[in-house]
Amino acid sequence: MSTPKTLFDKVWDAHVIRHVEDGPDVLFIDRHFIHEVTSPVAFLGLEGRGAPVLFPGRTFATADHNTPTLNQHLPVADPLSANQLRALEVNTAKYGISHWGLGHQKNGIVHVIGPENGITLPGMTIVCGDSHTSTHGAFGAIAFGIGTSEVEMVLASQCIMQPKPKKMRITVNGTLGKAVMPKDVILYIIAQISASGATGYFVEYAGEVFRNMSMEGRMTVCNMSIEMGARGGIIAPDQTTLNYLNGREMAPKGEAWDKLVPYWESLSTDDGAEFDVDLTFDAATIEPQITYGTNPGLGTGISRQIPIAEAVKDGAASYKKSLQYMGFAENESMVGKPIDFVFLGSCTNGRIEDFRAFASIVKGHRKADNVTAWLVPGSHVVERQIKEEGILDILTEAGFELRQPGCSACLAMNEDKIPAGKYAVSTSNRNFEGRQGPGARTLLASPLVAAAAAVTGKVTDPREFI
Amino acid sequence: MAYDNFTILRSAAVPMPIENVDTDQIIPARFLKATERKGFGDNLFRDWRYNPDNTPKADFVLNNPTYSSNGPARKILVGGKNFGSGSSREHAAWAIYDYGFRCVVSSFFADIFKNNCLNVGILPVTVSPEFADRIFAAIEADPSTELEVNLPEQTITLLATGDSERFAINEYKKHNLLNGYDDIDYLLSMKSEIEAFADTRPF
Fold first, then answer.
1. Buried b (16+ CB within 10 A) or exposed e, A327-345
2. Candidates 3.20.19.10, 3.40.50.1220, 3.90.79.10, 3.40.630.30; correct CATH number of B8-200?
3. Per-residue pLDDT tens for B31-75?
4. A157/B34 touch (CB, cutoff 8 Å), yes or no
5. Which chain B residues are closer than 8 Å to A55 by Cβ?
6. How far apart are CA B47 and CA B28, in angstroms?
């Protein structure tokens, strides 16, 4: 019998064209996503070399990072943003790459539209010039973010050169408590192991919590793998995965599908396969989470207090700097802190289940007067679902408005910027200083926590509503 | 993108003993709108370096004359643990390079940032936490103290005392940096092998 292999090894090894001695592997890339921000310099480089795009059919483009979320039918006002969007249009047309630009009915955040159109499949290698490419690992793909030099590499050669990361398994067993969402699970894990706790590793998520999770939940979890430093996260494909993909527009059909199913079913970690690190957590210890600091590892159960400096893994000086930026102090309770903004959206929590969850709490309530809420669907498909399912009516009745798809306030590259000093409860992925606008203060949380804050105007335990 | 090759670098250093310096601090997203790779150094550490009215923040290290008006421009940046975490934006590495740094030293780098540095000709040097502490202490004692980063020998040395440590880098990347090569040159040379492999993929 051959040596037992991990899921990660199976997929990685199937893509290695060559191993460079005392160097990286040459890894073949099945799918490459590009967007307007990290691709223009790659195309310039390609042009400088006079090299063609080797396999234009394996690259898919969308505009998302730098697009407005209101009045998308009008010309983009910011000339620099407009120029970047135009560059993507010109470059994709020149090289014959599929482009779902602003206004296209399938346009949306790259990590939302890939899965929802069936472009992402189990067993693939997927890269994109965006660190949250780890999202696609939910399907049993090896997916990770790359820099612009590597974008150029993939365009030119459909390969990148990467040293093989180490392997970590994170198992969560048991049953999740009331109002505990996939976002809480991943925020909890990051708080336990810190924002750098998985650097150098590729993480497989295992155990009944992930087995019982929907594909959208798995995407939320894998999405934030990078926030603990991991190159990516991966979950073994199962019937939930196949049910999600079957019939999606770009997924294989009929015989082609049937032929792939046995391969996909082989994609799980063999008994006895070894991990460099193996961690286990108990679902019962996870409550709804919220962050209080300026990296995603600085979070806690919502009913708890902000830890004292000695209790955190970051250096005390950096920790105090972080609390000072947030305007918080050690030992303070999170519940009851007044907030100014709520952001529902991003590649982490901009899918239909997130909007359903948000609506389940705001239904029959009113948005607090002191709160500005930006609700941004991850794609036009999600936007249509919100309307068709009657969620828009619930939101409107509660005093909320829906914006148009894009990355929006997650990275605040467009005009959706949280003002300096203001507090935002955000369903996005990063609470770095200034991430949501210069001086903005971000509290990362689930859609349920965001909804509870939106109707009360302060940090509120969502379990009070359920 | 071509870059100058890297062999032996001697320079005083800029100390930044802060943990978890993420790429949003190195270059905030609102400065990522360019379609060409130039001028990013002007916005390196923008919000730590400048007030909202664009006046320099006096207490930020890059604005501190102790580390700027003392001889030639410093080419080594020494950061705290988990340097370069967060976004994959290569613009962070471009900004560091464009500002004039050729080497970043830390006890712990984020993966994507480290790759990006290597791809644009910046040498990321991972040192032990103890050696990082000794570098910070040496700079504090004498801000003009020089470091030598020797890529062929894979060593980093505090020149005043000779205190030295070896650092790791894989032979392939070392060869590239020493010669100013990049991965694309390598990959283009194996095009037919890649095309044959692509034919075997099921999707």
1. ebebeeebbebebbbbbbb
2. 3.20.19.10
3. 999 999 999 999 999 999 999 999 999 999 999 999 976 667 899
4. no
5. 198
6. 8
